[in-house]
C-alpha cells in the first residue's frame, strides 16, 4: 500500500455535509431529532430463541456468525433460559469454503449429546441464510433425535413477536402436520371422533390458546370455558413439547394475538378450526365466548348466558373505574391493538396506536374497530421517530410506550409507562384481567400534576398556581 493510502483517512471530515435543520428527510428515512440513526429493535431472532430455549427437552443450535451468537446468547440467558446453546465456529473462512451445512450438522450433533434432549432446533440467521443453508441439508434426525430448521433472518422478519410465530410454526409442521396419521401398516388414519376413545372426545371439546399469556389469564379463561362444558387443553408457546402435539387434536385453536399468521395457516391446513380475536373488554369478551361455543358446537343457550354474564361483569368494572383522558399505546409486543380496544371501551380516547408487527388479515378487525371509535392512526412496523412526532400531534395525557418513548414523554412532563414491563406482565383477558389494567391506567392518568411538578423542579422555578402541598414523587 502506498504512503498516500496509509496516511489518508478513508473518510475525510471535510467531506461530510451536515444536513440543515429545516431540510426535510427523504421519505422512509429513520433519523432521530439530533440526526443520529436510532436503533428500533434488537435482532428479531431473539423471539424464536426465547420460545425454543424455554421448552423442556429442546436444545438449540445457532448457525450464525460469532457476533450475533454473542449478543443473542447474552439476552437469552438474561431472560432466564439457563441452557447452553450449541453453535459452530462460523466466520468468513467457513463461508468462503462453503462449509455452512457441515458446520450446522456438527452443532446439531453436539446438541444431541445433551442428556434429556428430545428435539434439536437449528436456528439459521442472516449469514447462514445468504450462504444457502436449506432444510434438505440437515438430516431429519441425529442420534435418534428430531431436528428442525428455524429460519429467522432479520432482513425478512421485522419483529421478535413474528419470530415467535416462525419458531412455533416450525414445531407445528413437525408435530401437527396437515397429512393424516399413519397406522402401523402404513394406512392413513383419519381423525375421527366416534365416542370410542374418551380421551380424544374430551380433547375435541377443548381449546388451545395461541399467544404468550400472563399466567393468570389461562386460569380465568379455563374457568369460563368449563362453565360451557369445555376447557383449555394447553397454551402455546408452552414449556411442554407434548402440548404442540395436541394442536391438531383439539376442537379449536384460539389465536389471541394477531402475529401468528404462519402457525394459523399450518393449523388451518390441518383442518383445525381457528377462533380469531381475544376476550378483551365487554364487547370482545362476549363475542369471543360465543365464537368458542360455535366452533365447538356447544349448547347455544348456555353459551349465550355465560357470554352475557361475562360482558356484564366487564361493564360493571368499567362503571366503577371509568377512564377519562387521551392515551397513546406504542409497544413492540404485538398485542397493542388489544390494549387499545380495552382502553377505548373503558372510556379513554386513543388517537394513536403503534406496533412493531406487520399489518395483516389478523390485525384488520381490531384496526377497523378502533378507527370506528376515534383512533386516527394505527402504525405498523413503527419507528421511534414516528412515535415522537405523535407526541407533538396528539398531546396525550398518558403514554404507554417503549423505553425511549416513555423517557421522551416524561421529559415533557407527560405521564408515561414502559409498555412491556407495566402492561404485558399483567392479566388482560375477560373481567379478571380488565380490572387490574384499567385501575393501573386510571392511576397513571391521575399523576399528571406530579409529572409537571417534577419537570418544573428540574427545569427551574415551580409554576405559579401549583399546589404548595408536598407531593410524594417516589410512587
Describe this entry's structure for a reader.
The chain has 475 residues and is of the alpha/beta class. The chain folds into 3 domains: 45-157, Nitrogenase molybdenum iron protein domain (Rossmann fold), CATH 3.40.50; 197-311, Rossmann fold (3-Layer(aba) Sandwich), CATH 3.40.50.1980; 318-459, Rossmann fold (3-Layer(aba) Sandwich). Helices cover 44% and strands 13% of the residues. The chain has helices at residues 3-7, 45-53, 66-78, 92-97, 100-112, 126-131, 160-175, 198-204, 216-227, 241-245, 261-269, 281-296, 300-320, 336-345, 364-371, 384-394, 403-411, 419-422, 430-445, 448-459; strands at 58-63, 119-124, 141-142, 145-151, 181-182, 188-189, 207-210, 232-236, 252-255, 274-276, 326-330, 349-354, 377-379, 398-401, 416-418. The strands form 4 sheets. The protein has a 5-stranded parallel sheet, with helices on both faces. The radius of gyration is 26 Å and the shape is globular.
Structural class designation? alpha/beta
Total number of domains: 3
Kindly report the CATH topology of the largest domain.
Rossmann fold
CATH hierarchy class name of the largest domain: Alpha Beta
Biggest sheet layout: 5 strands, parallel
Tell me how many strands there are. Answer: 15
Enumerate how many helices there are, as a single number: 20
The gyration radius over C-alpha positions equals 26 Å
**Assembly level:** single chain
Shape category: globular
Strand residue percentage? 5-15%
CATH architecture field of the largest domain: 3-Layer(aba) Sandwich
Strand order of the largest sheet: 13-12-11-14-15
Alpha-carbon distance between the termini?
63 Å
Amino acid at each position: 500500500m502506498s504512503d498516500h493510502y496509509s496516511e489518508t483517512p478513508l473518510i475525510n471530515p471535510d467531506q461530510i455535509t451536515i444536513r440543515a435543520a429545516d431540510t426535510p428527510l427523504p421519505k422512509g428515512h429513520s433519523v432521530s431529532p439530533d440526526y443520529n440513526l436510532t436503533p428500533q429493535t434488537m435482532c428479531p431472532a431473539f423471539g424464536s430463541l426465547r420460545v425454543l430455549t424455554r421448552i423442556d427437552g429442546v436444545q438449540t443450535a445457532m448457525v450464525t456468525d460469532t457476533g450475533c451468537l454473542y449478543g443473542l446468547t447474552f439476552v437469552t440467558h438474561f431472560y432466564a433460559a439457563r441452557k447452553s446453546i450449541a453453535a459452530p465456529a462460523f466466520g468468513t473462512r467457513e463461508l468462503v469454503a462453503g462449509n455452512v451445512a457441515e458446520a450446522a450438522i456438527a452443532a446439531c450433533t453436539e446438541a444431541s449429546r445433551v442428556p434429556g434432549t428430545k428435539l434439536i432446533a437449528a436456528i439459521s440467521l442472516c449469514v447462514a441464510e445468504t450462504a444457502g443453508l436449506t432444510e434438505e441439508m440437515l438430516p431429519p434426525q441425529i442420534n435418534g433425535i428430531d431436528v428442525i430448521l428455524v429460519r429467522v433472518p432479520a432482513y425478512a422478519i421485522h419483529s421478535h413477536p413474528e419470530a415467535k410465530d416462525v419458531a412455533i410454526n416450525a414445531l407445528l409442521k413437525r408435530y401437527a402436520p396437515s397429512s393424516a396419521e399413519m397406522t402401523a401398516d402404513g394406512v392413513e388414519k383419519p381423525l375421527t371422533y366416534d365416542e370410542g376413545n374418551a380421551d380424544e372426545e374430551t380433547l375435541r371439546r377443548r381449546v388451545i390458546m395461541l399467544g404468550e399469556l400472563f399466567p393468570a389469564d389461562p386460569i380465568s379463561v379455563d374457568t369460563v370455558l368449563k362453565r360451557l362444558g369445555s376447557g383449555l387443553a394447553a397454551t402455546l408457546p408452552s414449556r411442554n413439547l407434548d402440548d404442540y402435539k395436541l394442536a391438531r387434536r383439539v376442537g379449536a385453536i384460539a389465536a389471541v394475538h394477531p402475529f401468528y399468521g404462519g402457525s394459523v395457516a399450518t393449523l388451518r391446513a390441518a383442518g383445525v378450526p381457528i377462533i380469531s380475536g381475544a376476550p378483551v373488554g365487554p364487547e370482545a369478551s362476549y363475542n369471543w365466548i360465543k365464537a368458542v361455543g360455535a366452533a365447538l358446537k356447544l349448547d347455544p343457550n348456555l353459551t349465550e348466558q355465560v357470554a352475557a354474564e361475562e360482558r356484564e361483569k366487564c361493564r360493571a368494572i368499567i362503571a366503577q373505574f371509568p377512564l377519562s383522558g387521551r392515551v397513546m399505546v406504542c409497544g413492540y409486543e404485538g398485542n397493542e391493538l388489544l390494549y387499545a380496544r380495552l382502553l377505548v371501551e373503558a372510556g379513554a380516547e386513543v388517537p394513536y396506536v403503534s406496533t412493531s408487527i406487520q399489518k395483516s388479515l389478523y390485525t384488520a378487525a381490531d384496526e377497523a374497530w378502533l378507527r370506528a371509535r376515534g383512533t386516527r392512526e394505527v402504525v405498523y412496523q413503527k419507528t421511534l421517530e414516528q412515535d415522537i412526532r405523535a407526541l407533538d400531534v396528539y398531546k396525550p395525557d398518558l403514554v404507554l410506550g417503549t423505553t425511549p418513548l416513555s423517557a421522551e414523554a416524561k421529559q415533557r412532563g407527560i405521564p408515561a409507562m414502559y409498555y412491556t414491563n407495566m402492561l404485558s406482565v399483567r392479566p388482560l383477558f375477560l373481567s379478571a384481567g380488565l380490572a387490574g389494567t384499567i385501575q393501573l391506567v386510571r392511576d397513571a392518568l391521575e399523576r399528571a400534576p406530579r409529572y409537571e411538578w417534577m419537570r418544573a423542579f428540574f427545569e427551574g422555578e415551580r409554576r405559579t398556581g401549583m399546589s404548595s402541598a408536598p407531593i410524594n414523587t417516589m410512587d
